[in-house]
User: What shape does this take?
Amino acid sequence: MVTGRSRGMKQLLMPNDDDEPDKTVSDHNHTPKVA
Assistant: This one.
């Protein structure tokens, strides 16, 4: 599983790539990339 630092870095580096697996993380981070 991705850690706190990894999820943040991945979102900045490749937010599209982490779209699906980042669904839960996005909800916690409140990222604007989530549809």
